[in-house]
């Protein structure tokens, strides 16, 4: 069966004074069937978060334009994007008074394949017919404590250090880059990249159901409205990129 891609990117400033999230979906300028989606959450606790997030998208677009599948593997490409963005963000410290940091999620789609990399607590979820296949692990103190069995999910949700990251772009230490992928795309596959301004208010089941039942644009609108309603006036910046695999018409 021939497939098509239904995609949408969306952002909302939430209840913050500045939008420090960035998100974009970009087709390859020369290779049909190839595209990337990129999401970055400029660190809210640092000045210059928006600058850092912009650097992630800029480096991803520049590297993707030069991406050559015959000489560079998806893994190499994804690692290089995060490494180059990290280096660029660190250089920004010396050319401005800002202290920029960012998370990053980079998703690459090729004919029949999807690959991704991330660093920080912005997430990528992979659903198939509404069922969760995988999601990226957060590089946060709270998730490390959960994985070690030292706190429960309920405790994690109210932990006083739930926003503390153990790895991000722009920090002194090199970013922790984790990779994922699926070798065979199928109709019914859906991917969502999102910042914590969205996933903090939506369960895995809710995300999967909305992505299965609605087209990408409608799903983005529904999830944005749901997060804003549940934030009750204290919501963070939120952003998302949705990629759905559908039958070709």
UniProtKB/TrEMBL annotation:
Cited SMART domains: PP2C_SIG (SM00331), PP2Cc (SM00332)
The species this protein was found in: Uliginosibacterium sediminicola
Database matches in PANTHER family: PROTEIN PHOSPHATASE
Domain PPM-type phosphatase, chain residue ranges per copy: 4-245
Protein name per its UniProtKB record: Protein phosphatase 2C domain-containing protein
InterPro entries for this protein: PP2C, PPM-type-like_dom_sf, PPM-type_phosphatase-like_dom
Gene3D superfamilies found in the cross-reference section: PPM-type phosphatase domain
Pfam families for this protein: PP2C_2 (PF13672)
The organism's place on the tree of life at top rank: Bacteria
